[in-house]
Design goal:
Blueprint lengths: L4 H5 L4 E7 L16 E7 L35 E5 L3 H13 L3 E5 L2 H10 L4 E5 L7 H11 L4 E5 L4 H9 L4 E4 L4 H15 L15 E3 L4 E4 L2 E2 L4 H12 L5 E2 H9 L9 H15 L5 E6 L3 E6 L4
């Protein structure tokens, strides 16, 4: 296919996608060998429902999309809810995640997606925004009133204000279209690491010096309860799951306090102060909550007994 100057003038982005050689050469070069696949250039509007993948899978050649190491994910057969109205993209993503061992439930509109989320517990939701009927943002708000399942929004609306709107509605991640499968895998793996702790039995969460009690929403050190509030417990559990990693305030507000972050809101700082004080009372010295300037908070484990 030849890129028309008029298409470039309209500001349409040009994406590279893997297509059969029969789509036509981009320039007058010798014809490729039969059954050979090569890169060709394709023009599509920013909001086009097709072409969301920067690279389309080739039967028998999918190893080029699965070269990311996924062995660190500890959740066996993660349960994924995919809500996407584009049939071709929905089919490609369904096949891709099934090859990775996911159990996938697919829906073509927001209403059916909401019904599926109410029937079954999922580890991750991939959600398109521009859906027929109930749109993705409305579906996201409904999910957040009932559950804290990680949700990744997928949309051709990639402007800053669109991303901010998605995060303020409760999204855990926002992936603009077009995207590559490699980036999609990396982002889904990161979200699944956040739910890893919830899938472990209490006996496997034991620290040799600190015990997390999910039922009491408290921690015990040497048999002494710290007397944490539910918000303080969620904050410590989240920091402990991501020990050594600086977590941003917007993420902690959404994950722990279940509300959006504003610069004038000091609620998280108050919880951190109270948490430090309560841990000190029960002599927890091997965990330190550090403030990282311009980023958020970090949990550091030391060698103190």
């Amino acid at each position: 296919m030849i890129v028309q100057p008029s298409a470039v003038a309209k500001g349409w982005p040009i994406a590279t996608t893997l297509l059969p050689a029969s789509c036509g050469p981009a320039d007058p070069k010798p014809e490729p060998k039969p059954k050979q696949r090569r890169l060709c250039r394709k023009v599509f509007p920013l909001r086009a429902r097709c072409g969301a993948l920067a690279h389309c899978p080739i039967p028998g050649k999918n190893e080029i999309f699965t070269n990311v190491n996924h062995s660190h994910i500890s959740i066996p057969s993660p349960r994924l809810l995919l809500v996407e109205d584009d049939p071709r993209l929905r089919e490609d993503l369904d096949a891709h995640f099934r090859r990775r061992g996911f159990r996938v439930t697919v829906c073509g509109d927001g209403s059916h997606g909401l019904e599926a989320a109410g029937r079954e517990a999922f580890d991750l939701v991939l959600l398109d925004i521009m859906l027929p009927g109930l749109d993705g943002l409305a579906l996201l708000e409904s999910l957040r009133r009932e559950q804290a399942t990680p949700v990744m929004l997928m949309s051709a609306l990639g402007a800053e204000q669109d991303r901010i709107s998605g995060f303020t509605r409760g999204a855990d991640d926002y992936l603009p279209k077009p995207f590559s499968l490699a980036e999609l895998d990396a982002r889904t793996d990161a979200l699944l690491r956040r739910v890893r702790l919830d899938r472990l039995p209490l006996a496997q969460r034991r620290d040799t010096r600190l015990v997390f009690d999910d039922q009491a929403q408290d921690v015990l050190h040497q048999g002494l309860p710290a007397g944490l509030t539910p918000s303080e417990y969620r904050l410590l559990a989240t920091l402990r799951e991501h020990a050594g990693e600086a977590l941003s305030k917007p993420f902690l507000y959404r994950s722990v306090l279940h509300r959006s972050y504003t610069r004038l809101d000091r609620g998280l700082d108050v919880h951190v102060c109270n948490l430090r004080r309560k841990l000190a009372v029960v002599a927890v010295r091997h965990l330190q909550i550090q403030a990282v300037r311009g980023q958020g908070y970090l949990l550091v484990e030391t060698e103190h007994p």
